[in-house]
Amino acid sequence: MTNSNTVALVTGASRGIGAAIARALAATGADVAFTYQRDEVAAKAVAAEIEATGRRALPIKADSADAAQIVAAVERTARELGGLDVLVNNAGIFPAKPYEEFTLDEIDRALNIHARAAFVAGQAALGYLGDGGRIISIGSNLSDRALFGGLSLYNLSKSALNGFTKALARELGPRGITVNLVQPGPTDTDMNPADSAHAATQREFNALGRFGAAADVAELVAFLAGPSGRSITGAILTVDGGTNA
Ligand code: NDP
Questions:
Q1: CB of 180 closer than 6 angstroms to any ligand 1 atom
Q2: Are 171 and 158 in contact (CB under 8 A)?
Q3: In sequence order, which residues have a C-beta less than 8 Å from that of residue 154 and are 6 or more positions away?
Q4: Which atom of ligand 1 is nearest to the CA of 38?
Q5: What is a single molecular function from GO for this protein (predicted)?
Q6: For position 195, what pLDDT does the model report?
């Protein structure tokens, strides 16, 4: 499978699953732009890894909570890398606490980063995506099964991607653009370290009894982005080690 001569944009890819997706897409031959929020040192390290493979990398500081910054990131990608073929909406946060404690600012921020950012990034990308274009969002297995308390805001904001993905797949199908949602389960990253105090519970739910790696999610995204994924659209694909089984 190859994505030669394609351009991808991955949001939130200075670390974790996003960084693994950026590496996986570069490994299939794509030039990769990616956003980050704070960690410029980590972003530069990911860019250097991509460039070492012979592909072009473009790190862009852009807060997914800010729609204008997202649109600017899409436009800069197309301008500097010569187009856009694959959009991956990955940037995310994990606001977990009792329902009654969430403030309006926290609610807005989670909805903006998870749901609105995907919506406006897709709109901006449509100016560049042609036949064969790809929109892939990263949701969560928790949208299908809330395994513990504290998830009201995370699930409100992530589950929006499920309906959005199906609606957009239907609308963009006639243009040859596929739209899919990948739902990771427990994946060892800074957001959800495999050695945290909450890890043991997650292992108990997991059919494989272990955390996944960021690369497990990234390889599926690369498959969907490549030519072999051409007939998969409107799909919600869960990579959770059987947590929701
Ligand atoms: P990490 O916290 O390890 O990494 C998050 C990445 O997103 C970083 O690159 C961070 O940038 C970036 N980011 C965070 N907020 C913003 C923002 N407002 N604007 C732009 N970039 C931002 O998370 P994961 O890799 O674990 O998670 C990736 C996605 O996978 C998320 O959407 C998450 O909800 C989802 N997911 C993760 C699971 C897990 O177990 N890890 C399980 C299910 C879903 P910076 O370094 O600059 O802060």
A1: no
A2: no
A3: 94, 95, 96, 110, 140, 142
A4: 47
A5: oxidoreductase activity
A6: 97
Nearest-atom number in ligand 1 for the CA of 141 is 43
Residue nearest to atom 12 of ligand 1 (CA): 12
CA distance readout (Å), 10 to 13, 14, 43, 52: 6, 10, 12, 18
Q: Evaluate whether 61 touches 11 at the Cβ level (below 8 Å).
A: no
What does DSSP assign to residue 85? -
Block means of pLDDT (10 residues each) for the chain, 245 residues, are: 81 98 98 98 98 98 98 98 98 98 98 98 98 98 96 98 98 98 98 96 97 98 98 98 98
Q: Is the CB of 112 under 6 A from ligand 1?
A: no
**Residue 42 alpha carbon, nearest atom of ligand 1:** 46
Length in residues, the chain: 245
> Amino acid identity, residue 165?
T
SS3 for 126?
coil
Q: What Å distances lie between residue 197 and 39, 48, 162, 192, CA to CA?
A: 25, 33, 29, 10
138 close to ligand 1 (CB < 6 Angstrom): yes
Q: Could you tell me if the CB of 35 is within 6 A of ligand 1?
A: yes
Of the listed 36, 99, 128, 154, which one is catalytic?
Answer: 154
- Residue 111's pLDDT is 98
What pLDDT score was predicted for residue 3? 67
Residue 236 DSSP symbol:
E
- How do the domains of the chain map onto residue ranges? 7-239
Annotation says 128 is catalytic: no
